[in-house]
Design a protein that fits this description.
The protein is an alpha+beta fold. It has 12 helices and 19 strands. β14 and β15 form a beta hairpin.
Amino acid sequence: MNAIHGPGQYPAGSYYQASCLTQTWPESLLGQVEADVCVIGAGFTGLSAALHLAQAGYSVVVLERDVPGFGASGRNGGQVGSGQRCDIPALEKRFGRERARVFWDLAEEAKNIVQQRIADHNIDCDYQPGNLLAITKRRYLEDVHAQAQRLEHEYGYHRNELLSRQQIRQMVASDAYVGGCLDHGGGHLHPLKFAHGLARAALAAGVRIFPHSPAEKIHWGRRNTVHTPRGQVRAEFLLLCGNAYLGDKLEPRLSGRVMPIVNHILATEPLGEQRARQIISNNCCVHSSKFVVDYYRFSADHRLLFGGGETYSERPPADLKAFVRGYMLRVFPQLADARIDYAWSGRLAISFDRMPEFGRVGCNGFYAHGFSGHGVALTQLAGRLLAEVVAGQAQRFDLYAAIRHRSFPGGTLLRHPLLVAGMLYYSLRDKF
């Protein structure tokens, strides 16, 4: 077993990495191993699937290019939201009332899985309740209020609290918002601690996790073979759970289905509990109604963790701290004196229509990706549904697999320029 937790293992400057205890992981894969199921990717989706499968009696191997939680699972905003990434009116328009209700119920199950995993495996990940949608434009107020009322009266969801401009100003010390909707059923957590907790639980359940063992080639067949630099895994079932870090070459049939984009987060110095409660009075997490969203919350040691700005290149801004700080000061100009201790970036995968994409590939291969910034909870559901389809119970998996997704126009060559053009348009809409 190797203690792996040093420079280069996680994004440079990550507060999450700096605030985690040293973790001990197994050695990388050497030689050939056999399993019922091989999972590619030790992030939220892959770890959730592996744990569900191991608890159902399957032998499971997980291959990870780096270490558990290295990708989006250990870099994200940590917000646990309700529902799908698409709102209720969009779901009902596309799928009808009955199926929209099924998707809502599945998303509620996803939140319950998060809570269940934390409790069952004693995962200390700083979970706090409360998830606030902060509304930036008056034209959005009516739709947000209508959806909250529909959820209460037609879906039986009574956890939303509508906030006036005065009320949200008392909760969040910013003049940027005209109202809000506080979801008491949502919350926030330390995502890397949660990922590490899932990995430890999977190892305890008998899952074999091999870090620093990237999948380089797949030979599909009745029994699939996955090749790594120094070994092979032979397994009847193969789960592709790399999301934005899977790349386009390992399984070209999935290329162009999702778009990797890069988000950026900073962490201030510890501001102290008193000042933290002056900025967010109830310690909820916050995300704005802007298309290019701001999202933020406080850490357990009272640092503001602020995510803002998206880029579409692998190369981060030259001064990442200054880049994200500019977005933070538009919301909280009173933090101009706060030192920025950390800033980091990470890729997430968005689908064209913002619904997660599930499907089949090869012989006995399955995938789930494209959570579009709503993945902390939905990845836990995805892991359960992947385990179900491996066990021959495909009904719930197929609710997602049956969705007809559009590929991004332009394929892998032109999808980035076309996305940038679209995002610039919506960024301008945010300003007017």
